[in-house]
Amino acid sequence: MSQRIDTLKRSGYKIIQEKERFCFGIDAVLIANFAKANRGEEVFDLGTGTGIIPLLMSYDTKARHFTALEVQEQSAEMARQSVEMNNLQERISIVHGDVCNIKDLFDSRVCEVVVTNPPYMTGEQGKTSPNDARSIARTEVLCNLRDVVGAASYLLKPCGRFYMIHRPNRLSEIFSLCKEFKMEPKRMQLIYPYVNKAATMVMIEARKDARPDLIVEEPLIVYSEPGVYSEQVQRIYDGN
To answer: Any residues with CB less than 8 A from the CB of 126 and at least 6 apart, and which?
Structure first.
């Protein structure tokens, strides 16, 4: 397996990836931009992969510290190497561990922000080999949506914020689980590949122990034409 080092456009940070395993996509870039972290806050990333979300958010926000949890040991090690390559050890900690065992790994109510780009597909929808890195990243092989939402609720302080990107066809399940775990959906943005196509992704902000009051933001269109990012998305990549 061959590793490569890529440069993140707006920060100049380096990230180690391996094509045969799983490389980050636009969904990670979009949720890192959608999520908000204020000065001094503690941020957890559940299922960090090779660390793309904390790398992006550490540049874009004044958050005090990021804890990034990853179940795949090799991915966690690549993320750790990327953190060291960018001299971010004081701000980003990579933890090898399972979101399903969150209570064995961390105390409750330890952070203000949880962000995640979890597997989108149920076991019935995708390849389910527990040893395949891409399957683990894309399919609910080792954890499911309930595990992720429950872990976020466990980690968040009162009024803490949970940010997630997922598929619109699971919105009712997402909202139901958020409410079950005492998190109220507060902000939502649908993502469309083209202006005349159906939405393929959705980003959600939920708040711990909050009152109902959902704001639906203007849609995000990814492409203006095949192979050409829209102005909205290009600004996100450029950091403008």
So the answer is: 135, 138, 139
- Please calculate the CA angle 21-146-100 and round it to the nearest 5 degrees: 60
Nearest to 164 by CA among 4, 21, 27: 27
Q: Is the pLDDT of residue 58 over 90?
A: yes
Residues in the chain: 240
- Model confidence pLDDT, tens digit, residues 59-78: 999 999 999 999 999 999 99
Mean pLDDT of the chain: 92
Is the separation of the CB atoms in 47 and 116 below 8 Å?
A: yes
DSSP 37: -
Outline where DSSP puts E strands in 55-146: 65-70, 92-96, 111-116
pLDDT of residue 189 exceeding 70, the answer is: yes
Q: How far is CA 78 from CA 25, 62, 73, 115, in A?
A: 17, 24, 9, 20
Give me the amino acid identity at 150.
Answer: G
Q: What's 169's DSSP letter? A: G
* Nearest by Cα to 140 from 175, 105, 116: 116
What pTM does this model have? 0.93
Q: What is the DSSP string of 128-141?
A: --TT-HHHHHHBSS
d(CA 27, CA 222): 10
How far is 180 from 183, CA to CA, in rounded Å? 7
Q: Which residue matches tokens 């269109």?
A: 221
